[in-house]
């Protein structure tokens, strides 16, 4: 997860594979090869990625309508349609967003393409989400976000790239503790709960040889990330079912999604 290695086009990266699934062009042959291999073995995985992107937009829009004006987006990914600040600032131009990613190519595109409204602000930092203190104490974060006012912590499709050895529950708690009352957690995560055992086995067989690490987790495990938060309706559900009709309703559901409020 370290950014010190820079951009290596021969090693697939989750952000660029995801970009390919979303129809983007900011990816390399190694990324496309992994994406196609996974799609061939796991029908519906690309559609699930697109449903996940749609969830991000719905969640940000919903929170903006509730009055949230600050967003900390961890594991930003390569800019695509419906970026966090675009959705938030369409609802409230004064919204402020910090994007965090550890991939230099993501940050290069973010700085070039993710332009704020004059009333609001966006900032971008290249950092490892496994180092919450470094992110929470980063000068650009502190200049952009007011930690006395509600903040939406966006962790969409990021924790599945963090292995159990790095204790993702501890990481979520570290970020959550820094948030004031009235803040929110927006989260989605890969799961095998919502597909058949045969399909789950196919997924594991297809992805085991890949250099890009992903850890599917159960609904029970994912629900623990919301400890200290009150889940808003409809709770923790398939990503395609969170507060709207899915883009691809007949696709296999590969992700859980939920939004929680900190009392």
Write the layout of secondary structure elements.
Layout: H1 14-21, H2 29-41, H3 45-65, E1 70-74, H4 84-91, E2 96-101, H5 104-113, E3 121-126, H6 132-136, H7 139-144, E4 152-156, H8 168-177, E5 184-190, H9 197-207, H10 219-223, E6 230-231, E7 237-238, E8 255-261
Parallel strand pairs: 1-2, 1-4, 2-3, 4-5
Antiparallel strand pairs: 5-8, 6-8, 7-8
Helix pairs in contact: 1-2, 3-4
The residue ranges in which pLDDT falls below 50 over 5 or more consecutive positions are: 1-5
What class would the helix/strand composition place it in?
A: alpha/beta
Q: Termini distance?
A: 32 Å
User: What portion of residues is helical?
Assistant: 25-40%
Share of residues in strands: 15-25%
- Residue-averaged pLDDT: 88
Indicate the radius of gyration in whole angstroms: 17 Å
How many strand segments? 8
Shape: globular
Can you count the helices? 10
The topology string of helices and strands comes to HHHEHEHEHHEHEHHEEE
Q: Describe the main β-sheet briefly.
A: 8 strands, mixed
């Amino acid at each position: 997860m370290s950014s010190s290695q820079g951009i290596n086009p021969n090693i697939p990266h989750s952000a660029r594979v995801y970009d390919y699934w979303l129809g983007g062009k900011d990816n390399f042959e190694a990324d496309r090869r992994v994406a196609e291999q996974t799609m061939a073995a796991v029908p519906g995985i690309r559609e699930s990625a697109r449903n996940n992107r749609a969830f991000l937009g719905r969640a940000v829009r919903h929170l903006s309508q509730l009055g949230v004006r600050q967003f900390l987006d961890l594991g930003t990914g390569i800019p695509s349609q419906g970026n966090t600040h675009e959705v938030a600032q369409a609802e409230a131009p004064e919204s402020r967003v910090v994007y965090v990613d550890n991939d230099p190519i993501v940050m290069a595109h973010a700085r070039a393409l993710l332009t704020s409204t004059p009333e609001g602000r966006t900032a971008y930092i290249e950092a490892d989400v496994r180092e919450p203190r470094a992110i929470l104490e980063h000068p650009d974060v502190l200049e952009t976000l007011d930690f006395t006012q509600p903040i939406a912590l966006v962790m969409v499709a990021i924790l599945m790239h963090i292995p159990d050895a790095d204790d993702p529950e501890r990481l979520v708690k570290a970020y959550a503790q820094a948030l004031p009352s009235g803040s929110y957690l927006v989260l989605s995560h890969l799961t095998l709960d919502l597909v058949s055992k045969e399909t789950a086995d196919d997924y594991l067989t297809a992805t085991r040889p890949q250099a890009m690490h992903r850890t599917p987790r159960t609904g029970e495990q994912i629900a623990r990330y919301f400890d200290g938060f009150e889940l808003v309706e409809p709770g923790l559900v398939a990503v395609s079912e969170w507060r709207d009709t899915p883009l691809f309703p007949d696709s296999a559901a590969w992700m859980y999604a939920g939004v929680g409020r900190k009392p």
